[in-house]
Design goal:
- This protein has 153 residues and is mainly alpha-helical.
- It has a single domain, classed as Four Helix Bundle (Hemerythrin (Met), subunit A) (Up-down Bundle).
- It is built from seven helices and two strands.
- A two-stranded antiparallel sheet has the order 1-2.
């Protein structure tokens, strides 16, 4: 998958939106709280789904801060990969997202009931790193990422 393919599917630049970025991040935090409530429920389907959406909503908050609209999860993950390559994210978040997306799909759609490794503290640490990125992204960094999206891989 490439950013060019994603653009052909409808991924596009929009006006950066700090308010929406904050709303998506708050939804990620809320989803983590709900995930903590169900972690001992015995439902691998819901645990996988909630875990993934905690991470996905946090990643989408970054896209809103930069001004990127993406309705395909794999394309959102491609943007996260770009941020890793550009050293704006210092951990392999794209791999975490890919693995947890696959787990969610297996458990939610294919009813595989795969076990879910849920570590609330680890996901909380991911949210802290995303929070730090949201708070520290400069206009120059945002412009650079937008230009990379606009002008190709």
């Amino acid at each position: 998958m490439s950013l060019e393919w994603c653009k052909k599917q409808g991924m596009r630049l929009v006006e950066p939106n700090n308010e929406l970025a904050e709303e998506y991040f708050k939804n990620a935090e809320e989803t983590l709280r709900v995930t903590n409530l169900i972690k001992n429920s015995g439902s691998n389907m819901w645990l996988a789904t909630q875990k993934y959406y905690t991470e996905y909503l946090a990643s989408y908050s970054i896209l809103m801060k930069i001004g990127i609209k993406s309705e395909i999860h794999s394309c959102t993950i491609e943007v996260i990969r770009l941020l890793e390559q550009d050293k704006l994210l210092d951990f392999n978040f794209s791999k975490i997202l890919e693995d947890d997306k696959e787990l969610r799909i297996d458990n939610q759609y294919y009813l595989k009931n795969r076990p879910v490794d849920f570590d609330s503290k680890a996901i909380g640490n991911i949210l802290l790193k995303i929070r730090n990125l949201l708070d520290s992204l400069t206009e120059e960094q945002i412009t650079k990422i937008r230009n990379l999206i606009k002008h190709g891989d």
